[in-house]
């Protein structure tokens, strides 16, 4: 190799990779340089570097599996077809089944908001006359508590779905999958944040006895409503359909409003049903969540795929599943960092909670914040932060959500298909925007912000994934 000899007047140009230790010296000597950010794969941890190397031997197999998983998700449809009591439509639901957000957890280990919601749901079901009796029943072992995700359902925050709560029924007509989600109660003191006072229970019973029958009849008039189309349009109007659903809710109301007034209910009830949706900007959250769920379920069971299909939190643990496995991989949930309502601070907050991170898993929510810049007023940060989050998520995903485009990024599609291999290799975790629940039941929402999953979930999933590849 020919040796390069520098002459006295030659100009030196430096490429600095990784460490910034030399940058001050280069600047003081007026030396031209370019600094390249670099981190070793998997943070340089040998155990996880070795796991990535093992996975590399199966690169083509994994790539084909991930492409197949992504194709299924993209082809999936999400149509709202009905609103029915959970026990009538959710397979495996019984009179003693209570579904909750996040990975599996026992009643004694549940966070305050989830315990409060469980007790309220027991009273709602008339299985107990009061909260004291409800707690005795919850502790008795007579009820079955299970993750909503394991029943093809999702719920925001505590995520409680009890047998006679009405649920949205969302169908994928391509893969013949169905997903379910409760009805969003609105803001304030609500069951999903652990509130369980008489007014909360009465609202739930009104939803069951008045609102749900009207919606059920209205949906027979409209026929299936295409929720993916609404989501795609709402993204063009400044929503990200996790914490900002103003446009999506308005678009949904446009689809259902006429049918509400064509039902056989009396006029007062029709007006109340219409106003219930109109006055609740978060109504569509409980439609975007099952839309994401039913589409992602299409990829579940694809051997060799490292794509994440579930991210969920129960206020104690954060859990994920990947397409090639039905196993939960869990680690302690992080605390949300963000903006607090007046009178509250970090010391009041419960750890991250809720199934609503299914929206991020589907390329919405935090992944689409760049298309919803107004969201930073709710969760904190700047518009540039929101744009950068949407850009960075492409480094950890299998592909792009071609239907979900972000106008503020020149109509670039949102990132879709979180890849555990890319998460570990790049040291980049998915971003989630979410509400913050008070740690005690009954208080409700105390803020909103941003949170990342614990890295350990992805590390455990990687270890199991690599082991499975060798079988």
Gross CATH architecture of the largest domain: Alpha-Beta Complex
Regarding CATH, which class of the largest domain? Alpha Beta
Per DSSP E runs of 2 or more residues, the count of β-strands stands at: 18
Secondary structure class reads alpha+beta
Mean pLDDT: 93
The figure for the number of domains is 3
Which fold name is given in CATH as the topology of the largest domain?
Enterococcus faecalis V583 fold
Question: Whole-Å distance between the termini?
Answer: 46 Å
The CATH homologous superfamily of the largest domain is named Enterococcus faecalis V583 domain
Helix content: 25-40%
* Major sheet attributes: 5 strands, mixed
Q: Count of helices?
A: 16
Q: Quick one: overall form?
A: globular
Which radius of gyration do the C-alpha atoms yield?
Answer: 24 Å
Describe the strand arrangement of the main beta sheet, using strand numbers. Answer: 6-8-7-3-9
Describe the structure.
The protein has 471 residues and is an alpha+beta fold. The protein has 16 helices and 18 strands. The strands form six sheets. It has a five-stranded mixed β-sheet with strand order 6-8-7-3-9. The chain has a four-stranded antiparallel β-sheet with strand order 12-11-10-14, with helices on both faces. A hairpin with a 5-residue loop joins strand 15 and strand 16. Helix 8 packs across helix 9. It starts with 12 loop residues before the first strand and ends with a helix. 50% of the residues are buried.
